[in-house]
Design goal:
7 helices; about 0% strand; about 65% helix
Length: about 170
């Protein structure tokens, strides 16, 4: 199955900010503490880290992590550390991941999300001594299942309309 190759328009910084705000707003909803509810901020940070590493970087991830720390009333810096590492590794892999299909991209994103959750779990375990159980990592699996939808939605404004002009080479 060949996928269409789009020439993407430049992304608007306002759209990036809007998508991060929407992801943060989704994390603020009451389902955030249910088992299996994905971390939308982490998913969008990975997406922009892979697709636009020069526009969304480690500083943005740290700031959003501090906001999530304040919202979750967790140890200050727990989410900031996890999101910073997540963003760093997404930027490290960005050239490789973009060559693959959506399924293979999701397979590359899954260890990043598990790593971020492991960092959060380790910090919580060090502070409280409580292990949340292995179902804690279902959140990463659900986020990976949402990767194709997130990619489709976040790339939609950049797609150029399919032009049927056969005289142009691109």
């Amino acid at each position: 199955m060949s996928r269409p190759h789009y020439i993407l328009l430049p992304v608007s910084p306002l759209f990036i900010g809007f998508s991060l705000f929407c992801a943060f707003s989704l994390n603020l909803l009451p389902w955030g503490h249910f088992i299996g509810a994905p971390d939308f901020v982490a998913l969008v940070l990975v997406f922009w880290g892979v697709h636009q590493p020069r526009k969304v970087g480690i500083g943005t991830a740290f700031f959003l992590g501090l906001l999530m720390d304040v919202h979750d009333a967790t140890l200050l810096g727990e989410n900031a550390l996890a999101y910073t590492l997540l963003s760093y590794f997404a930027i490290m892999l960005h050239r490789r991941v973009l060559w693959f299909s959506m399924l293979t991209q999701a397979m590359h994103v899954f260890p990043l999300l598990v790593m971020a959750q492991s960092v959060q779990m380790a910090v919580r375990f060090i502070v409280s001594g409580k292990f949340p159980g292995w179902f804690y990592f279902i959140e990463s699996a659900v986020a990976v299942l949402l990767w194709p939808l997130a990619s489709w939605l976040l790339l939609a404004p950049q797609r150029r309309a399919v032009d049927r002009d056969h005289t142009r080479p691109i």
